[in-house]
């Protein structure tokens, strides 16, 4: 990713802006989103899926990164939006996303969330379990609405990714297994329920998956199962939603597919399988999150101390860490880095990049070769668009960084930097007892 970024003189530029201008204007740590890179990728998805025999919904998995700006942008470009909580739903609605273009996911949608979503006119519920089925039916009946649902099924595919982000194994907490005897009777109940419209099936095999074969197998299993369901109940499947999970580049260890080539092969595979089994869903949907946004995001930090220890690599301390990017501590995720103001200097030293949290594990990068690092330099970690800001925390009462979108030499703040005031906004002083 760093290889694709523009360098001017000795300095990194993002969206036509020198990194020093960004840090001067907006401070650090800072999440920077290269808007053209993002919209180009949105167009790649849309273009590849334009000329099929089936219709497609490209549904942005907003858990990867969402805020009003992002939700507005993806919906402007015609994407649908996947939400998994009342908060993500609220954000999408406030951003003006058409409720009909929202998919509501999650294994434990709360009664209030279901209520809000039904009232808002959310276009599709991805049903997870029988309790949710009951709640949804009650709500639909009360509101006098017929709700479109997909059933989340588990096709039992083992995708090779980190265990925490694997989803379609047989003991997964998500959905119902296609091998479970109870699943067809459950589908029957949904079909016969006059408050629900059974529109089809959904599956998601995991995240950061690189094996094309896993995605192809998912297509085969899902289409086969859909055919089964069609024949068993003499219905026609309206939609098959195949989820997201397309792997992306973080470091040289990752070997992602070239996106448009992969999508071409994927679509061909879908088309031939659909033809072979003679099944014609109106819509085949996918739900990319990471593969849409990750490469467009970078995080900028200011280097504080550079500290030698008695053993190991010298530390570079940055003004953020696990609070703005918990992926290394959660998943041992790896990243690359560069010193944004020394792009013309060769690497001379291996460093370890650590954050400022009171926690030994708060290490963003275990080892990275860089030019000589000095206090005040700007460290850039690219490929941080997905699951960083959206998983950030206030641990140690550290304020969340700002999010800035950049394009053509211009910048707009999408999310303001948090302040100390924000940190205590919901706190109360003791009122009920004399101390
Ligand atoms: N659809 C469903 C139903 C999902 O559960 C997910 C991700 C996606 C789509 C989008 O997957 P993507 O295209 O982004 O891989 N926090 C973890 C990733 C968790 C993914 C959860 N579900 C991480 O930082 O790696």
From TrEMBL:
Keyword Lipid biosynthesis belongs to the record: no
Source organism: Pisciglobus halotolerans
Annotated residues for binding of substrate: 290, 327, 331, 359, 387
Cofactor names: pyridoxal 5'-phosphate
Residues modified to N6-(pyridoxal phosphate)lysine: 63
Residues that bind pyridoxal 5'-phosphate: 245, 287-290, 387
Source taxonomy: Bacteria, Bacillati, Bacillota, Bacilli, Lactobacillales
Catalytic reaction annotation: meso-2,6-diaminopimelate + H(+) = L-lysine + CO2
Involved pathway(s): Amino-acid biosynthesis; L-lysine biosynthesis via DAP pathway; L-lysine from DL-2,6-diaminopimelate: step 1/1
Name by which UniProt lists this protein: Diaminopimelate decarboxylase
């Amino acid at each position: 990713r760093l290889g694709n970024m523009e360098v001017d003189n000795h300095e990194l530029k993002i969206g036509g802006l020198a990194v020093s201008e960004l840090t001067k204007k907006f401070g650090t740590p800072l999440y920077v989103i290269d808007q053209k890179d993002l919209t180009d990728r949105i167009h790649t998805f849309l273009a590849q899926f334009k000329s099929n025999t089936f219709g497609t919904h490209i549904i942005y998995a907003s858990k990867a990164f969402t805020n009003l700006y992002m939700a507005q942008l993806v919906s402007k470009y015609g994407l649908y939006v996947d939400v998994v909580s009342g908060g993500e739903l609220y954000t999408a609605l406030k951003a003006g996303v058409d409720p009909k273009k929202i998919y509501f996911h999650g294994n434990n949608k709360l009664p209030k969330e279901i209520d809000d979503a039904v009232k808002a006119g959310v276009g599709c519920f991805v049903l997870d379990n029988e309790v949710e089925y009951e709640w949804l039916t009650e709500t639909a009946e009360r509101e006098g609405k017929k709700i479109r649902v997909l059933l989340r099924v588990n096709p039992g595919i083992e995708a090779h990714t980190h265990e925490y982000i694997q989803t379609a194994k047989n003991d997964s907490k998500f959905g119902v297994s296609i091998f479970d005897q109870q699943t067809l009777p459950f589908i029957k109940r949904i079909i016969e329920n006059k408050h629900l419209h059974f529109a089809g099936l959904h599956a998601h095999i995991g995240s950061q998956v690189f094996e094309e074969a896993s995605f192809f197998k998912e297509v085969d299993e899902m289409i086969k199962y859909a055919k089964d369901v069609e024949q068993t109940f003499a219905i026609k499947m309206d939609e098959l939603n195949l989820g997201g999970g397309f792997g992306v580049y973080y470091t040289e260890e990752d070997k992602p597919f070239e996106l448009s080539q992969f999508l071409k092969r994927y679509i061909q595979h879908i088309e031939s399988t659909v033809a072979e089994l003679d099944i014609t869903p109106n819509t085949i949907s996918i739900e990319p999150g990471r593969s849409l946004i990750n490469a467009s995001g970078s995080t900028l930090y200011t280097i504080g101390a550079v500290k030698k220890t008695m053993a190991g690599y010298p530390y570079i301390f940055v003004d953020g860490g696990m609070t703005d990017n918990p992926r290394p501590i959660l998943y041992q995720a790896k990243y690359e880095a560069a010193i944004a103001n020394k792009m013309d200097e060769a690497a001379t030293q291996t460093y370890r990049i650590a954050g400022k949290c009171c926690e030994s594990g708060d290490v963003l990068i275990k080892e990275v070769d860089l030019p000589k690092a000095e206090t005040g330099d700007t460290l850039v970690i690219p490929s941080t668009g997905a699951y960083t800001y959206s998983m950030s925390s206030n641990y140690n009462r550290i304020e969340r960084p700002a999010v800035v979108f950049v394009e053509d030499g211009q910048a707009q703040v999408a999310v303001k930097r948090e302040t100390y005031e924000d940190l205590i906004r919901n706190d109360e002083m003791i009122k009920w007892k004399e101390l």
